[in-house]
Specification:
327 residues, alpha/beta, Rossmann fold, Nuclear Transport Factor 2, Chain: A, six-stranded mixed sheet, five-stranded antiparallel sheet
């Protein structure tokens, strides 16, 4: 049985998930949500795969509980491959863990925390209905943003206590909405659905994979570059906030083996120069081959400006592979 919305969430956010589900179903939008819709005796993973592929939109609930959310990441990957519009609803002022960055990319989010729940649900209903009509989630969220800007937040926030806007000098790159053309053929039925769906999915993903940016002759996948830029910005914002341990946690096993004293050395350097006061990107992240990118920044301290080069590679998600600070 097809549903309008598949709701993905951590078990710790069950109350939020049920509240959002109730709000959507009050507006006559059918939802699939576990464990409510898993028949007794049905294997959990099989039920999720079968039903997710029959839904028309994918809503992911993001909170501080989303760290190490492997199940949510798998569901997001399947939604992306299926071509569903992915809509993120934040129930806390948090940023996504690295394993979700690839799929959320530059997709805008709806904020439901604080006193924003009713407004967020109103916009969410608009997004889902627009997606059903084949307009795509990105266009629908953009329309919602123009109607009520405070209901839609940027795709990632700073990790520092003050949470300033990330990298204001560099306009965000846009990530093509996953399967934006899929809504046009939902409900046609029969073999034609499978054939047309395969063509639309392949075309959309081929376009994304061949979309490139050039700097010094290097090219790379646009969606990858967006995710890489967010990891690099997150890493720099943690350094700026003095949260060296937090920065360490988004580094790769190779980094941690090659720079075992990174945390101590970084704290010493920051203390010596009076702490970091800000950072700015020096151009775009450059594709360096073998699923590797280099991002360049200027890190300001009361004493001087330092130049940082961050190498980011895809291992189990995008992680910092190398860090060089000069000046």
């Amino acid at each position: 049985m097809s549903r309008d919305v598949f709701i993905s969430y951590r078990s710790e956010d069950k109350d939020w998930a049920e509240r959002i589900c109730g709000a959507l179903e009050h507006e006559s939008l059918s939802c699939w949500i576990a464990p409510r819709d898993i028949p007794v005796g049905k294997e959990w993973a099989t039920a999720i795969v079968e039903n997710l592929q029959q839904c028309r939109a994918f809503v992911i609930i993001l909170s501080s509980n989303s760290k190490n959310a492997r199940q949510i990441a798998r569901e997001a990957e399947l939604a992306d491959k299926t071509g569903l519009p992915i809509i993120t609803v934040r129930v806390e002022d948090v940023q996504p863990p690295p394993e979700l960055l690839y799929f959320l990319g530059n997709v805008q989010w709806l904020d439901a925390f604080g006193n924003q729940f009713e407004t967020a649900m109103s916009r969410l209903v608009q997004v889902v209905r627009a997606a059903e009509q084949g307009k795509g989630a990105a266009a629908a969220v953009a329309a919602a943003a123009s109607a009520s800007p405070q209901a839609v937040s940027p795709s990632i926030t700073q990790a520092s206590a003050s949470r300033p806007a990330m990298a204001p000098s560099a306009p965000p790159e846009t990530r093509p909405a996953a399967g934006a053309g899929m809504g046009k053929w939902i409900g046609i039925g029969g073999a034609a659905v499978v054939l047309i769906g395969a063509i639309v999915w392949f075309t959309a993903h081929s376009s994304s994979n061949t979309d490139t940016a050039t700097q010094g002759g290097a090219t790379g996948n646009q969606r990858d570059r967006t995710a890489v830029k967010q990891v690099a910005d997150q890493f720099m914002s943690l350094i700026q906030a003095g949260d060296v341990r937090g920065a360490w946690q988004i580094t790769s096993p190779t980094f941690q083996q090659e720079q075992p004293h990174f945390q101590k050395a970084m704290r010493t350097e920051l203390e010596r120069d009076g702490g970091a006061t800000g950072f700015k990107p020096d151009g775009a992240c450059v594709y360096d081959g073998s699923a590797t990118y280099r991002c360049f920044y200027t890190l300001s301290t009361p004493q001087k400006e330092k130049h940082a080069t961050i190498t980011i590679k895809h291992t189990t998600g995008w992680l910092v592979e190398k860090w060089v600070l000069t000046g």
